[in-house]
Amino acid sequence: MKLSEIAERLGGALTGTDDPEISGLARIEEAEPGQLTFVANPKYTAEAKKTHASAIVVAPDFPEIDLPALRVANPDLAFARAILPDLVTLNPQRDDIGARVRAATEGEAGCDVVLECVGNEHALKACLDAVRKQGVVVQTGLHPHDNPLDWFQVTFKDVDLRGAWAYPTHYWPRVIRMIASGVLPAAKIVTARIRLDDAVAQGFDALLDPSGKHLKILIDLAA
Known about the structure:
Layout: H1 3-10, E1 13-15, E2 24-25, E3 35-38, H2 45-50, E4 55-58, E5 69-71, H3 75-83, H4 97-103, E6 111-116, H5 121-130, E7 131-139, H6 151-156, E8 160-163, H7 172-181, E9 190-195, H8 199-208, E10 216-220
Parallel strand pairs: 2-3, 3-4, 4-5, 6-7, 7-8, 9-10
Antiparallel strand pairs: 1-5
């Protein structure tokens, strides 16, 4: 697929004179000719200049580099859409999450199961709004403080509210098979591999950095 076709699909603007053929996606450190990569923060301009990728997804104000660039308002989201073309995303600052989800379900009943994965009270309220009567809300994200919830709605909708501290080990073989078969393209969102000794500084701290570039960081126990 040509870069211009991807730009049209994602709603971005192209800079540069070339329109390369894109055959895959990769992290900036591992990208090869024919692949598309992304950088969300200008502080990684040096890495962008060294990449072997044929094109790069960046923000509109990213510095000019000698590489065809697809400029979009949200590079992380655009790259996710490039990985999963059928991905449906909603912006809670703009969209009424509950209304949008209900509108996409039969009879506008709402969805069967909702997972709150970030530990945000507004996200949990949106989950409660989006789930159908007698549906299930699963809380996996850790909340940093008390979270007020509309318990009238929990009772009125007869919702099953569950907390999940960790995923049961009997799920693991199935998940491993799904990753191995490509059903879950997990490798596409791993943006760094580190040693166990570096887990705090290069792992947790890097992921907590609001201006960081990482999606998921893999701890390599064999390194």
